[in-house]
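Now for our specimen.

. . .
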Amino acid sequence: MGSERAAGQEPTGLGIEMLPVAMAGLRAELSEARGLARELAGMTPAQADSAWCDQLEDEYQDVGAAHAEMVRQLARWRLDHPHAPGLDELAELVADVEPVRHALLRQLALLRCARGTSGTRVLPGRPPATLIRDEPQWTYSPDCAPRALHVWREGDTHLVAIVATESPEGGVPVDAVAARLRAEYPDSEIELFAWTPSAVPGGGDRFDRFDRENPPTAEQVCTHDVIDRLGAGHRYRCRCQS
């Protein structure tokens, strides 16, 4: 999980004699990450140094390749040395990497949001998002009430569509909205979010809510995650900023 592996220096094709070394290294890295997460959880926004937090985020956002290599190494060892002692324990350590990493990144996101700096930089490993459409009075059919639509482009073909709801209860007519957007952007993959703005009449919340629409279900997504992903701190408001 550390910076050396993040830099692409993870050795490949290790012999089974390196299993204890791999286990010891992974234990130490997990312990360090858990300790950092606890330290961050106890900090106020004023106590958290922005440069240090950004450095941590860069390091822990960029460990995916090293983790994937360790997963492959574990699979090779299981194939070549199925009865080697320690493989099950290593598998448990490997399985802990992503939950621990995400817990640390979650604390960093909370602090960043509370400082009001969510969405002010492109996070490592993510393509920059560009707002290509900002339409306050969009309609998906002639007989529907107009609503706000934001369309963000990520990469060449992926779009994130943010469609405002009409009430504090949230929700949008997903099938009709999705069909209209597909007709308008036939060559793009569209990820649809229902957006309940903090300014919805009758709403008690002072922050925006986002639900990723994936019929037949909808999944609420942390507002600061959407803000960070899109670089949209000036457009949306999170609970942490209330």
Notes: Helices lie at 3-6, 19-41, 50-61, 64-80, 87-114, 174-184, 223-230.
